[in-house]
Specification:
heterodimer, A: 352 residues, ABC transporter involved in vitamin B12 uptake, BtuC, 16 helices, globular, B: 297 residues, mainly alpha, two-stranded antiparallel ribbon, 12 helices, 73% helix, transmembrane (chain B)
Chain lengths: 352, 297
């Protein structure tokens, strides 16, 4: 790394920290919540991009892993009194009632539980390819949701959990998002990352070069699930209430959307598009509310937001197939080249 | 369990299975020709229910006119979805097409919320079909017997179309190899659009009968039947029409019997399909009737 780049990186990180401090003290709770959501979706997007974008496994099971992370974190951080309030239909199982741990260990346990489940699921499922893998992982995530709906004395069933402590704040979400970015960057640039990309490009060629397909696929799947669990835990403790319906397929789709728009196989693209998509989805809420133009009052149409959003998505997918960044990454050189109006905006990645 | 109760459940299972089979055929045909899951198929099914509902309830058409109009409009909708979400991405990576298809499915769902409202509506009942008849000790709706018969009739007309007509020959050719079919003078795009249309016609028939059997419609009702019917197609061997029908029956009867025999597992009814899917994928990844595909290097 050049000296200039190191300085620029340090400057931009300190600008970000200053911005967060400013946001924490001045922004209202709605804006802070959107910022938190952006950071959480960054984590979720990166974890899914590792599986779908870098390794080329078409997995649609993200909502299930997030559900595990969210429930484990919520149940571990809720004090016993709150738990008893929640479980009024059937009492909570005794071994869970009095367990309360701090936020960070709870998040990690949530992530590890998701990773363990991914390991168990992965053993049979990762032998499948393409659409079959997609539908099998989707099936598993639905099974997780259905099990959570039916285990009344562990997850409180369809009622969900309420008054989860609001421990997620800007520092937690942005800190963990930064850690995720650093982890993913170092993973992708390691020999493991190269093996994963080789599997994405051509499984048979990769296998004949001596890359253990199953081991590497499992590695990506388990790590992706871990971060999905952590992201889910952050999300649950941000929103304060979770229920099984939240973790339907549409949640997986939101994350998939982020990585497709940002570019499958680009960390920069995922980060940018996580922010754009999440805040965009929030600000499109205008469409659902009634608009007062002074002389005429347009009544709001519930659902219009999602119609506009899904049509935008289809337009982007049809006309910009590689997403925002393709498989390129941000670099200071690329940025300066852009500023000097040179056509080669970003450093082309090797092999693509 | 007494014999008459068992027969009651069995007839229920068979009619549910027939509905699954009808929708599953749509999946299997599209998969056979494009090697893609048509994620929007469940939503096309849902739209057909709304078309039939509006035909009868708002435009006050007699039920048979409304049902015919429904089938035609649904067919057009299916072709439109193909033109918008699939044709434009014919040579793109599969994941892009998949995302576009999922996008189309969410678009239709939310369009239904905007156009028809999110509140559930009651599907119009047609007396001739919903009357209860008694055979021995088993009492059932006439519909329960009509559905399997209609399914078998539709299945045979479809098989005639696929095996005996020129369009069917074109469909079979395209499903083997797009390029070669094109060189032989087959209009590939038109054939694919027709396949979507036929799948949608079957989804419309399935939808109408579904609406009469479970008369409550809402915009998100297509998701679960959609997923389950794709699973039915996979269980039977995706790409194979007989397979889809067999898969549909296994799924429908299995689901009803699970709830009937083990009532404590009622909450896990929807999970049954997924568990079955995973078991089948592990034991015989190509499904019961699917042919083995070896990978070319």
């Amino acid at each position: 790394m050049k000296k200039r780049d190191i300085i620029l990186t340090i400057i931009s990180i300190s600008v970000l920290i200053l911005f967060l401090m400013f946001a924490n003290s001045r922004f209202d709770s709605y804006q802070i919540r959107i910022l938190n959501l952006c950071a959480i979706y960054t984590i979720l997007g990166l974890s899914m991009n590792l599986i779908n974008g870098f390794t080329g496994l078409f997995s649609l099971g993200h909502a299930g892993f997030m559900a595990i992370g969210a429930y484990v974190t919520a149940l571990l951080t809720m004090p016993a009194a709150v738990k008893n309030q929640n479980f009024f239909l059937q009492p909570i199982v005794p071994w869970l009632e009095n367990v309360t741990v701090p936020f960070l260990p709870a998040l990690l346990i949530g992530g590890i539980m998701a990773a363990i489940l991914a390991f168990i699921i992965g053993a049979p499922v990762l032998r499948l390819r393409g659409d079959y893998l997609a539908i099998a992982t989707l099936g598993f995530s639905e099974i997780i949701r259905i099990v959570f709906t039916n285990t009344q004395n562990i997850t409180n069933g369809a009622l969900g959990l309420k008054s989860i402590p609001n421990t997620t704040n800007l520092w937690w979400s942005f800190g963990l998002a930064a850690l995720t970015i650093i982890f993913m960057l170092s993973l992708i640039n390691s020999s493991y990352g190269k093996a994963l990309k080789a599997i994405r490009e051509d499984e048979i060629a990769a296998e004949s070069m001596g890359i253990g397909l199953f081991r590497h696929k499992m590695l990506a799947f388990v790590i992706g699930a871990f971060f999905a669990g952590v992201g889910g835990g952050l999300l649950g403790n941000l929103l304060g209430a979770i229920n099984p319906v939240m973790f339907r397929f549409i949640l997986t789709f939101n994350v998939l959307l982020i990585i497709v728009l940002g570019g499958m196989g680009s960390i920069t693209g995922t980060v940018i598009s996580a922010f754009v998509v999440t805040s965009g989805l929030e600000y499109l809420r205008v469409l659902d509310e009634s608009i007062n133009l002074g002389f005429v009052r347009l009544p709001g149409i519930p659902g219009l937001r999602m119609v506009v959003f899904s049509s935008l998505l289809m337009i982007v997918v049809i006309f910009f197939r590689n997403g925002l960044m393709g498989t390129n990454e941000f670099s200071w050189d690329g940025l300066f080249a852009l500023l000097r109006k040179r056509p080669s905006f970003l450093k082309r990645e090797v092999g693509r | 369990m007494s014999f008459s109760l068992f027969m009651q459940h069995l007839t229920n299972g068979i009619s549910l299975g027939s509905l699954y089979a009808l929708i599953a055929i749509g999946y299997t045909m599209v998969y056979g020709i494009l090697r893609l899951i048509n994620f929007a198929h469940g939503e096309i099914f849902m739209m057909s229910l709304y078309f039939a509902f509006y035909g009868v309830a708002i435009f006050a058409m007699p039920w048979y006119v409304s049902f015919i109009v429904t089938v035609i409009i649904t067919c057009m909708l299916g072709m439109l979805v193909e033109r918008a979400a699939y044709k434009t991405l014919r040579d793109s990576p599969r994941i892009t097409v998949m995302v576009s298809a999922i996008g189309a499915s969410f678009f239709l769902q939310n369009l239904a919320v905007v156009l028809f409202g999110g509140r559930p509506k009651a599907f119009p009942t047609v007396q001739i079909f919903t009357d209860v008849i008694k055979i021995g000790t088993v009492s059932l709706q006439r519909l329960t017997l009509i559905i399997p018969v209609a399914t078998i009739m539709l299945l045979y007309s479809l098989l005639y179309l696929v095996n005996k007509t020129k369009t069917g020959m074109a469909m079979r050719a395209v499903s083997k190899d797009h390029e070669t079919a094109r060189l032989m003078g087959v209009d590939v795009n038109r054939t694919i659009t027709i396949t979507f249309g036929i799948g949608s016609i079957l989804a419309a028939f399935g939808g109408i009968m579904w609406g009469m059997k479970f008369p409550q419609i809402q915009p998100f009702m297509g998701v679960m039947p959609g997923l389950k019917c794709f699973i039915a197609a996979v269980i039977g061997g995706v790409g194979n029409i007989y397979g889809a029908v067999i898969g549909g029956f296994i799924l429908g009867i299995g689901e009803i019997m699970l709830v009937a025999m083990l009532p404590q597992l009622t909450g896990y009814r929807d999970a049954f399909a997924f568990v079955l899917l995973i078991v089948i994928l592990l034991l015989k990844p190509t499904g019961i009737m699917g042919e083995k595909i070896s990978e070319k290097v």
